Fold this protein.
Amino acid sequence: MKRLFIPLGKIQIYDEFHRLQPDGNFEVDFKKDGKSTEEHRQGIEYIKSVLKKGKKIRPILVVDNEDGTFFLLDGFKRSIAYKELNYKNVEAFVCDRLEYFIRRDNPEETIPYDVGKMWAGKGGQPKEVYSLFEGKQTEGEFKYDDLIFLFKSEKPAGLRIEIDENIHIHWDEFGKNRLALGRNDFIQLAEAISKI
């Protein structure tokens, strides 16, 4: 599984749970999904408000179709929020076909990732580990304000340096570019920059 920025327009967002309507809106199959179209719409509006504030959220999960397109496994509301905010590229956990078929044929199969395990399957990740906001794991729900910032620009397109599982340096539109460093590497980088 790789973590990449991919073109939003190359992702197959709609499926048997979430159907695109002729008017361009979507409809959710409540029996299959367990949530209504209105509940999805409320979630999308919330995610849009989070993104407009420049907050970092968990990447979506897709499988690589190996033809330049991707099939969405987890992140429908996030994808629609990105689409409605005119994002061109989004961050995603991208699993390959082998990972997807292993998971499909062996439902208990997981992939070690970060602080826990992920699976390359439709329907999302364990919510107790991977919440909407990304970053350090805490008891209960993770809150974006729990992050420790070494520096944070006031502009969404600015620079921010934060500490969670390691030290992350983010820059460009909503922090889409990321450099993750251990403490010693970060200190060496800071010292090298200070000598310029």
The first helix runs from residue 30 to 33. The chain has two domains: 2-139, 147-196.
